[in-house]
Design brief:
Blueprint lengths: L4 H42 L2 H4 L12 H14 L5 E10 L3 E7 L20 H5 L8 E8 L2 E11 L6 E10 H55 L9 H18 L2 E10 L1 H8 L1 H18 L5 E6 L2 E9 L2 H15 L3 E3 L2 E3 L2 E9 L6 H17 L5 E3 L2 H23 L2 E10 L5 E12 L3 E3 L1 H11 L2 H21 L7 E4 L2 H5 L3 H12 L6 E6 H6 L5 H9 L3 E7 L6 H6 L4 E4 L1 H6 L4 H17 L2 E4 L5 H10 L3 E2 L10 H11 L14
Parallel strand pairs: 11-12, 14-16, 16-17, 17-18, 18-19, 19-20, 20-21
Antiparallel strand pairs: 1-2, 1-5, 3-4, 4-5, 6-8, 6-11, 7-8, 9-10, 13-14, 13-21, 14-15
Length: about 675
């Protein structure tokens, strides 16, 4: 009905316009006829009806004087308007017919009707003017040999007898009449046409607007789907999930209820992708999405974060067992073989569960807890579930706090360098100084390197921090040498991430050029793990640095890969034995044997050996017996601030005095 009512409205308007046009034409027609009758009445009143009464409708009437006078009057009346065709008088003859009495046409005109001639167009209405009906009337329009015309007929009644003496006829050319009717019809017809055109235009615009609205709605729907749903599986994406998580948390907080999210990661999905191709992998993800939707309630949300990661939001749970049961059902369902094309594949799933309000109070932290729990499930053997660990969450918050503090500390200059001397066992002289970074936080005080160094490496902040350490250590070493300190190298730890970042060699060269420090007085310390990561990409870089004269030391040796192959290929000059081996070598024969083998191997490769973490005279003596070159540790000196280091350099110029060193084993 809604589709046809506009057309019904248009049809109604058209019919109304036509009816109005008909009424207007009828009114115009009636007005024109009234006008003709009025003109005919005026003509009737101007005639000499006494003379008319003398005529009998015979041919010999033309010989009468009255006839000539009446004919002259009619001719004069006819000439008043060019639209008058004929003016004539009709009479009733005793033989029962209507005859011409007088005609306005000239006698020699082909249209002349002589007296006594029968009026061939006499109608019943005309005849009635001579009998019962004596009201003036019009006839026509009629078409004949003279064209189209309208007749106005006015009877003249004898007031004494009440009989019609004669009828005055006035024939008017209908062309003017027709033009008048046409002009009268133009306005309503034009209005109707305008109405139809306007209505059609409005309806067209309405239809077009509705179609455009429908198109925009469909486009908006598609954009909403693209913005809030995963294009592959049709599941809600991370943006829609975040919104629903926020709503669930608000509802749970308001109602004092509990809610849970399950973070899912498919096991062995990479194997499917690599072996069967990405198309099969996508088909597998769609099948998994369908299974997950079928396992949960209608109010629950199944979302895909990307890759093979899914999240299920359970907005209302009674207790922890509800989330556990859902996780168990998911693991059991996805353990079943999944048909993908003509293949049947099996994947498992690791599930991390986070609860509100136990694990987090905001959506971001909530999802992070579930993510960590999922990785704990993977570490626990895969194809299982794991609830979020509060202690793990506390460590994550501490790590985030440390990372934030690191960024602020770098901007505010909260880091300082301490320097620990390295001594030659053979001569007791200073062999070098290792630069060690320390962090003095305005609220936390001194922060242990074991706390912030791993965070700096994981977050990438080790790059700007390492660059600052390298530049500051080179500047400090240059100052010492200018003040007359021994020309011993400064040793700086460099991370693998620093080496991988483009431009390390250029930055190092710029620092050496700025500080005017000879490359031979700089020694870079890299751990075994860092060197192994750089075996392919960084070996050329390390080789160029060695050619420029920069020393290279392998730090914490024995804790990493301990590969003889990379030791042989690298341009290292020093090997540093990790403190974990030195600490036990006096009491543990196996530890002593390991240290001895490291020293022997370094000797064979032409490398100097430095032992770290020496804290007693017994350890120093044992290392001397094994042939170790250099040592560092609290037995000799702790890490010192620059001012403290400079103050003690004079007493070390002639060699180290073990009597002044504390024994950390006491």
């Amino acid at each position: 009905m809604r589709k046809i009512w506009p057309w019904l409205l248009v049809l109604g308007g058209v019919l109304t316009g036509l009816i109005l046009t008909l009424q207007v034409v009828r009114s115009a027609d009636a007005g024109m006829r009234v006008q003709f009758l009025t003109e005919a009445r005026l003509m009737q009143r101007s005639l000499d009806w006494t003379a008319v009464q003398t005529l009998r409708g015979e041919a010999n009437d033309a010989t009468r004087e009255e006839y000539a006078r009446l004919k002259q009057q009619l001719e004069a009346l006819r000439s008043v308007s060019p639209q008058y065709r004929f003016v004539y008088l009709l009479g009733w003859h005793d033989k029962g017919e209507v005859r011409f009495l007088v005609d306005s046409e000239a006698a020699d005109s082909p249209d002349f009707s002589p007296s006594g001639m029968a009026y061939g167009e006499a109608t019943e209405q005309l005849i009635a003017l001579f009998s019962g009906n004596r009201r003036p009337m019009t006839e026509g329009p009629l078409r004949d040999s003279w064209g189209v015309w309208v007749s106005a007929l006015v009877p003249h009644v004898d007031p004494q007898t009440g009989q019609t003496i004669a009828v005055l006829g006035l024939d008017v050319d209908a062309s003017q009449w027709r033009r008048t009717l046409l002009h009268a019809a133009l306005l309503p017809l034009g209005a109707t046409l305008v109405f139809v055109l306007a209505s059609s235009l409005l309806f067209y615009m309405r239809v077009r607007t509705r179609r455009e609205h429908a198109r925009l709605m469909a486009s908006e729907g598609r954009l909403y789907e693209q913005a809030y749903h995963d294009s592959l599986t049709g599941l809600p994406n991370q943006r829609l999930l975040a919104d629903r998580m926020t709503q669930a948390l608000s509802h749970a907080h308001r109602m004092g209820s509990r809610t849970a999210i399950l973070f899912l990661d498919l096991d062995r999905f990479k194997n499917v992708n690599d072996s069967l191709g990405h198309a099969m992998g996508d088909a597998l993800l769609c099948e998994v999405a369908g299974r997950l939707r079928a396992l949960v309630r209608e109010d629950d949300t199944v979302a895909r974060l990307g890759g093979d990661e899914f999240v299920i939001l359970l907005p209302e749970i009674r207790d922890d067992d509800d989330a556990r049961h859902v996780a168990e059902k998911i693991i059991a369902e996805l353990a079943k073989p999944i048909a993908v094309g003509d293949q049947s594949v099996s994947v498992g799933v690791s599930v991390g569960i986070a609860l509100y309000p136990d694990d987090a109070l905001d959506a971001e932290g909530w999802l992070a807890c579930a993510d960590r729990a999922m990785y704990a499930a993977k570490d626990g053997g895969r194809n299982t579930f794991q609830f979020a660990d509060p202690l793990q969450n506390a460590r994550a918050r501490e790590r985030l706090s440390t990372e934030t503090g690191l960024r602020q500390g770098l901007a505010r200059g909260e880091f300082e360098l301490f320097y620990q001397p390295v001594f030659s066992l053979a001569h007791g002289t200073l062999a070098g100084v290792e630069a060690l970074v320390r962090w003095r936080h305005p609220e936390w005080g001194w922060v242990e390197p074991a706390r912030f160094i791993p965070v700096a490496e994981d977050s990438g902040l080790i790059v700007p921090l390492g660059d600052w350490i390298l530049a500051e250590a080179c500047r400090a070493a240059r100052r010492w040498h200018q003040q007359g300190a021994p020309a011993v190298p400064v040793m700086v730890n460099v991370s693998a991430l620093q080496l991988r970042r483009p431009g390390f060699e250029e930055r190092l060269g710029a620092v050496l050029q700025e500080t005017e420090l000879p490359p031979a007085l700089l020694e870079l310390e890299l751990t075994e793990s860092a060197i192994m990561q750089e075996t392919l990409a960084g070996s050329a870089l390390l080789h160029r640095l060695a050619e420029e004269g920069v020393g290279l030391a392998i730090d914490d040796f024995g804790t990493g890969y301990s590969s003889l192959a990379y030791l042989r290929k690298l341009d290292a000059t020093r090997l540093k034995i990790d403190r974990s081996f030195v600490a036990d070598m006096v009491e543990d024969a196996e530890a002593r044997a390991i240290v001895a083998s490291m020293v022997g191997m370094a000797r064979a490769l032409g490398l100097k050996v430095t032992a770290e973490g020496v804290e007693s005279a017994a350890q120093a003596e044992a290392l001397r017996d094994l042939g170790c070159d250099d040592v560092q540790g609290y037995y000799f000196a702790p890490p010192l601030a620059e001012a403290a280091l400079l103050s003690r350099l004079p007493e070390w110029q002639h060699g180290f005095n073990p009597a002044s060193a504390p024994d950390r084993t006491a």
